[in-house]
């Protein structure tokens, strides 16, 4: 069985599907931050310094760990950006 088929089968379980979707949303946030930071030409350390946080915090967010909206807003502003949240 291919992984895509296995995931499709597992997603029929409501509990698994809820977890799967939540992790996908965290990953999307992590990828968005990574791309924004790269586009700004900053290292994790440079961004952390500007956002008055630690490099470890930036790394954790880019791994998909939970973070507050306040922290994301600080990070966005440190890159000269505005934090926007959309629901789709």
Description:
The protein is an all-alpha fold. The chain has a single domain, classed as Orthogonal Bundle (434 Repressor (Amino-terminal Domain)), CATH 1.10.260.40. The protein is 67% helix and 0% strand. It has helices at 3-10, 14-39, 44-50, 55-62, 69-78. Helix 3 crosses helix 4 (55-62). The chain is elongated, with a radius of gyration of 16 Å. InterPro entries: Cro/C1-type_HTH, Lambda_DNA-bd_dom_sf. This is HTH cro/C1-type domain-containing protein. Residues 33-87 form the HTH cro/C1-type domain. GO terms for molecular function: DNA binding. Pfam families: HTH_3.
Short description:
With 88 residues, the chain is mostly helical. 67% of the residues lie in helices and 0% in strands. The chain is elongated.
Structural class: mainly alpha
Mean of all residue-level pLDDT scores? 94
The CATH superfamily is known as: lambda repressor-like DNA-binding domains
Sheet of most strands: none
Number of domains: 1
Rg of Cα set: 16 Å
Secondary-structure element string = HHHHH
State the shape. elongated
Reading off the top of the CATH hierarchy, the class is best stated as Mainly Alpha
Q: How large a portion of the residues is in β-strands, by DSSP E?
A: under 5%
In total, the number of strands is 0
CATH topology: 434 Repressor (Amino-terminal Domain)
The rounded distance between the terminal residues' Cα atoms is 31 Å
User: In CATH terms, what is the architecture?
Assistant: Orthogonal Bundle
How much helix is in the residues?
Answer: 55-70%
Q: Note the quaternary state here.
A: single chain
Number of helices: 5
């Amino acid at each position: 069985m291919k992984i895509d088929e296995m995931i499709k089968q597992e997603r029929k379980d409501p509990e698994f599907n809820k977890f799967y979707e939540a992790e996908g949303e965290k990953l999307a946030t992590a990828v968005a931050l990574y791309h924004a930071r790269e586009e700004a030409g900053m290292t994790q350390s440079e961004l952390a310094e500007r956002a008055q946080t630690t490099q470890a915090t930036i790394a954790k967010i880019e791994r998909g760990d939970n973070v507050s909206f306040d922290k994301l807003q600080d990070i966005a502003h440190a890159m000269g950006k505005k934090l926007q949240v959309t629901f789709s």
